[in-house]
Amino acid sequence: MIKISNGHVITPDGVIRNGSVLVRDGIIVGVSDRDLETPGAMILDAGGNFISPGFIDIHVHGGGGYDFMDNTIEAFLEIAKLHARYGTTALFPTTLTGSAEDIISTLRTYDKACPLNESGSQFMGVHLEGPYFAMNQRGAQDPKWIRDPDPEEYEYIISQSGSIKRWSAAPELKGAIPFARYLKSKGILASLAHTDAIYEEVLEGFENGYTLATHLYSAMSGVTRRNAYRFAGVVESAFIIDDMDVEIIADGIHLPAPLLKLIFKIKGPGKIALITDAMRGAGMPPGESVIGNLQTGIKVIIEDGVSKMPDRKSFAGSVATADRLVRTMIQMADISLTDAIQMMTMTPAVIMNIADRKGSLTSGKDADIVIFDEFINVHTTMVKGKIIYQSAVG
């Protein structure tokens, strides 16, 4: 038995001041507004800090100098360790556009790394980002691999692994609607991304399974004009469709404060997931880096707290960690701590269908717990009852 006490417990119903959390065999067995008597329990003193559900990152490519598409077990394990230091207890390794062989190699490496991941954020399944994208919304994705959905290809990829939980694609492409239906039949979430769709195409996509907007505003259409007529793009469509979930890179750079406030005002904390979209530069010093596979990926520059293309005309992914996302939303979007935490915990858990065991400090759920101070500096990270990170001053 572990008792975490002397902290402010963040629950779905609000913050319990000076509460405690009980953990047995990796599961939360009690949350109380007082210091419970627990003879023989190991005591973890929160030191007057916040006791929070573990952060869930549903879109992350790398960190600590590694990328998941390096396709090595070392890369997977080191990325998991790096993000655990910043409060992430569960994450979905994310690919980039590549060949079918590259994608399958990443899936096979994931399956090998999973049972070895004992000291990092828990892997919850793979998010395939691409290769079915609109060419002129490719962002930092390698154009040579961008193509339309091919049933022979995607059915083969899915047959090679049971670990795929989400696949991001552009819904307006030829074959994209049957693709979404196939994903749905396999229990895989279809997410719209790197897309030039207009409202009518987004709506059709939503009705066939594209229920999440990947990194809202990034690599997607807004209002466009064709001759004299205006058309709503993906951004406006995500706002219009009430039941569409969105994820945002809340690093304070990809989206400025007014847009963070606008998204929150329209969608609310129950429909927004905060994501790092972090590449290998997360947790690393500024300088040259690579997005994607270390040998075959695209060279980028890390500066000003973000990854940029070499010409500095566009971003090339984020170097954020989950604590930074929460901090940014509180400081720049002027929202409450509890709303920010919901978007980093329960909302992503619901979107990815893992809320039965993740996302809140509730009896019966996994003991994925983070202790952080008022500045969202992480002191302790616990995954399924096991402490995997403690700061020197924790």
How would you describe this protein?
The chain is of the alpha/beta class and 394 residues long. The protein has 2 domains: 2-51 and 362-390, Urease, subunit C, domain 1 (Roll), CATH 2.30.40; 55-351, Metal-dependent hydrolases (TIM Barrel). Helix content is 25%, strand content 29%. It is built from 10 helices and 24 strands. Strands 1, 2, 3, 4, 5, 22, 23 and 24 form an 8-stranded mixed sheet that branches. A 6-stranded parallel sheet has the order 11-12-13-14-17-18. Helix 4 links the parallel strand 12 and strand 13. It is globular and about 70 Å long. The model has no long low-confidence stretch (mean pLDDT 96).
In short:
Helix content is 25%, strand content 29%. It contains 10 helices and 24 strands.
* CATH domain fold name of the largest domain: TIM Barrel
The CATH architecture designation of the largest domain is: Alpha-Beta Barrel
How many structural domains?
2
Instruction: Let me know the CATH homologous superfamily of the largest domain.
Output: Metal-dependent hydrolases
Oligomer: single chain
Mean pLDDT: 96
CATH class division of the largest domain: Alpha Beta
Secondary-structure class: alpha/beta
Strand content: 25-35%
Low-confidence stretches: none
In whole angstroms, the N-to-C terminal distance is 20 Å
Percent range of helical residues: 10-25%
What is the number of helices? Answer: 10
The main pleated sheet reads as:
8 strands, mixed
Bulk shape: globular
Q: What Rg is obtained from the alpha carbons, in whole angstroms?
A: 20 Å
